[in-house]
Amino acid sequence: MKSLDTLLNQTIKITEKAALLIDDLRKNFDFSKIEYKGKNDLVSFVDKQAELFLVESLGKIFPEAGFIAEEGTGVPKKINWVIDPLDGTTNFMHGLPPYSISIGLMDGEELILGVILEITSRTCYYAHKEGKAYCDGEVIRVSNVRNFSDGLYITGYPYRDFSKMKNFNQLMYHFLANSHGLRRFGSAAVDLAYVACGKSEGFFEFFLNPWDVAAGALIVQRAGGIVTDFKGGNNFIYGKELIAAAAVHPEMQKIIEACWYE
């Protein structure tokens, strides 16, 4: 394998080119070409074209790796690129930021590197497993806020599975009533990046996929944050639930577990 610094820099350049492609495709975006993978689970020709570009480009810089990609391009191997070509598709379709590209690299269960590019602002967050986390060349750190009540939090709303709405409503009430607030931006990758750079004290969401979180989870960790599943364990890549937070993580996790598994 190439050095992690080299691989990361090459990944960033590919991500930037993919953002240009997405910008160009949006000029002729047509709502008639939207497809539904499930209720409110949208995909466009832009997602597919961007993913094809990313798979082809990443395959050239690291041929030994396979792919776990949202639209199913490529074949998984032991080492995999984990790709969301357009995280926040619904936002993108309506011209509402944020939406992003998320690229992670995993060796089995180990996170190796991650790149998140917020497309509209061209803000890039990145890290590899042996270094610090960065945003556009500057080192980033998670918030140092220690009191839950002083935090501002982020979540994602359910959009296709509403079976846990009672529990989720309890969580929203607790966070809204006992903190500086709860926000929803519509791109889990960006949500994780905001935690990594200290804009938010913590993020939680359920029914997530590996491509939603692989890059961001590593960036949060390398920025000094804690990432777990709702029970405080390590099953946050494939377990479809995630808490990413700074010093408030223990209290967040306690609250979420109590509401979610009552």
- CATH class descriptor name of the largest domain: Alpha Beta
Kindly report the name of the CATH homologous superfamily of the largest domain: Fructose-1,6-Bisphosphatase, subunit A, domain 1
Specify the structural class: alpha+beta
Order of helices and strands: HEEHEEHEEEEEEHEHEHEEH
In total, the number of domains comes to 2
The total count of helices amounts to 7
What percent of the residues sit in helical stretches (DSSP H or I)? 25-40%
Radius of gyration: 17 Å
How much beta, percentage-wise? 25-35%
As residue ranges, the low-confidence spans are 38-42
How can the largest sheet be summarized?
Answer: 7 strands, mixed
Question: At the third CATH level, what is the topology name of the largest domain?
Answer: Fructose-1,6-Bisphosphatase, Chain A, domain 1
Biggest β-sheet: strands ordered side by side in the sheet: 3-4-5-6-7-8-9
Distance between the termini: 46 Å
Number of DSSP strands? 14
Shape: globular
CATH architecture of the largest domain: 2-Layer Sandwich
Query: What value does the average pLDDT take?
Result: 93
Topology:
Elements: H1 4-26, E1 35-38, E2 41-43, H2 45-61, E3 66-69, E4 79-87, H3 89-94, E5 100-107, E6 110-118, E7 123-128, E8 134-135, E9 138-139, E10 152-155, H4 165-178, E11 181-183, H5 188-196, E12 202-206, H6 210-222, E13 226-228, E14 241-245, H7 249-260
Parallel strand pairs: 3-4, 10-11, 10-12
Antiparallel strand pairs: 1-2, 4-5, 5-6, 6-7, 7-8, 8-9, 12-14, 13-14
Helix pairs in contact: 1-2, 4-7, 5-6
